[in-house]
């Protein structure tokens, strides 16, 4: 993983040096033919960096898929909750749900924490923001396919709004200054809430497949994922 980060860092450095060359040669005052050549080279490097970031993120899919499957297995193993959460001590039940949500999320969050910490240490800010964008898309897609869709009897219509929202985020994600993710100085410009609005209603959709308690745990877990990418206001924007 460090080698991949080094390769992407090198491409980013080439982009920076090319931009400096462009400015030193006159910038916008440069002759059109020469300017076009430099701009084309910059575009090629930009595309290469995007492609490499995507390929690297895709290489992590098996690990993410496995962690999400473990999440699903742990969710289904939760017992109780045949009634509603309104009965009994509501505060105690909410606390119990939060604890169980943290537990089912552990495989996924352990993977994300370990990977993103390494990337934050090894990658330049511009490289990290691309990796984070690709990682976000992959996590959303695998959660959708592994946790959300399998229990559904009508796979073509259930969660269509979720699929549309997630794909919209995946195609339009623009994250700024993500290199400060783990240093409390990160700034982001992407709407997490829109992509997760469908997911947050999951307990209503899967009520016939999961117990009310399992639905509540999954709802809290999904909110935790949203908060993770939001990073206390320093990450992806919620609104």
TrEMBL record:
<dbReference type="GO" id="GO:0098831">
    <property type="term" value="C:presynaptic active zone cytoplasmic component"/>
</dbReference>
<feature type="domain" description="MHD2">
    <location>
        <begin position="102"/>
        <end position="239"/>
    </location>
</feature>
<dbReference type="GO" id="GO:0042734">
    <property type="term" value="C:presynaptic membrane"/>
</dbReference>
<dbReference type="GO" id="GO:0035249">
    <property type="term" value="P:synaptic transmission, glutamatergic"/>
</dbReference>
<dbReference type="GO" id="GO:0031594">
    <property type="term" value="C:neuromuscular junction"/>
</dbReference>
<dbReference type="GO" id="GO:0045211">
    <property type="term" value="C:postsynaptic membrane"/>
</dbReference>
<dbReference type="GO" id="GO:0099069">
    <property type="term" value="P:synaptic vesicle tethering involved in synaptic vesicle exocytosis"/>
</dbReference>
<dbReference type="InterPro" id="IPR014772">
    <property type="entry name" value="Munc13_dom-2"/>
</dbReference>
<dbReference type="GO" id="GO:0099525">
    <property type="term" value="P:presynaptic dense core vesicle exocytosis"/>
</dbReference>
<dbReference type="GO" id="GO:0016082">
    <property type="term" value="P:synaptic vesicle priming"/>
</dbReference>
<dbReference type="GO" id="GO:0030672">
    <property type="term" value="C:synaptic vesicle membrane"/>
</dbReference>
<dbReference type="InterPro" id="IPR027080">
    <property type="entry name" value="Unc-13"/>
</dbReference>
<dbReference type="GO" id="GO:0019992">
    <property type="term" value="F:diacylglycerol binding"/>
</dbReference>
<dbReference type="GO" id="GO:0043195">
    <property type="term" value="C:terminal bouton"/>
</dbReference>
<dbReference type="Pfam" id="PF06292">
    <property type="entry name" value="MUN"/>
</dbReference>
<dbReference type="InterPro" id="IPR010439">
    <property type="entry name" value="MUN_dom"/>
</dbReference>
<dbReference type="GO" id="GO:0061789">
    <property type="term" value="P:dense core granule priming"/>
</dbReference>
<dbReference type="GO" id="GO:0005516">
    <property type="term" value="F:calmodulin binding"/>
</dbReference>
<dbReference type="GO" id="GO:0017075">
    <property type="term" value="F:syntaxin-1 binding"/>
</dbReference>
<protein>
    <submittedName>
        <fullName>UNC-13 protein</fullName>
    </submittedName>
</protein>
